[in-house]
Task: structure prediction
Amino acid sequence: MTDLIDSFPTVRELSDDEWRFLIEGDYDRQRLFDKADEVRRQYYGTDVYIRGLIEISSFCKNDCLYCGIRRSNGNAERYRLSKEVISACCEQGYGLGFRTFVLQGGEDSFHTTEWVADCVSALKEKYPDCAVTLSLGERPRKDYEIWYQAGADRYLLRHETASRSHYEKLHPPEQTFAHRMECLWELKQIGYQTGAGFMVGSPFQRTEDLIADMRFLRNFQPHMVGIGPFIPHHDTPFAAEPQGSLERTLTMVALTRLILPKTLLPATTALGTIHPQGRELGLKAGANVIMPNLSPAAVRGQYSLYDNKLCTGEEAAEGMESLKRRVLEAGYRITVGRGDSLATEPG
Ligand code: 5AD
Result:
């Protein structure tokens, strides 16, 4: 069975048994991580792309059972950044070498179609050499189109789990799996470089669900895939659930690199949160993107998706020098540039 690892990258569909073995089988994970690293180096060399993450609002009308900023969390501190503050964050980020800005937020109705479009066009005008990524959840197709017209390049919307029955255990009935999927397909059709992604070890997750994630990714062919461990938040219904494991998360990162060799894979903040070397281990298992936090320091602690979320040190934009050093020590190199997915190039 371990020959399977050598057969990557393969175009062949794997069987349920093969997937099950790769995900939970008893074999030397280092071989899998090394193979993913080899494939990553083939396509991206040792380059690590950086994205400046700006968390623009912690208001959210959704009620995802796992998330600390869910609407029914009365203890969550809420804030919203003004356009001026967002622009100032980007200015600081540009100086630090960031050429991609990610505007991420809860689903906040304050962010009207026009507000976001204005924000995007102002940024694109000021920084024509930068990519703007949006991560603002599920919106009507019209909004996605208008924001694309305004200049947004990329959109991140994790699918969270590709299994409908599992999705329904993580979300209230008004948040449907069908709508999540519809949004993802629309984004891709409009022309965004589109990011999907999922949590590893979320409550009720079975191996079948992770197999469904792999098959969905193969079919959807996203440009980016965010994968992180589930981490409980104390003010959610999942407060007492165990967190996702490091090894399982790295396994899913590596498998994703192998089925989508050209995809952009962040070594996520959640991965950095569960282990002091989490991000480096992610890079060594096929990840090639890091997204430091460019939000104003004063609000960073309030974007609390899960407990102990990193937002200082190398996680913060001010920590760039030490981040660069750590990435070098791991055998990779941070590069300045937009860092588009190779999957967008012809051929
Ligand atoms: N643990 C890990 N990741 C989480 N997210 C939200 N809540 C948690 C949690 N408790 C992730 C979701 C979401 C992204 C912004 O953060 O996958 O898409």
Summary: The longest strand covers residues 193-200. DSSP finds 14 helices and nine strands in the chain.
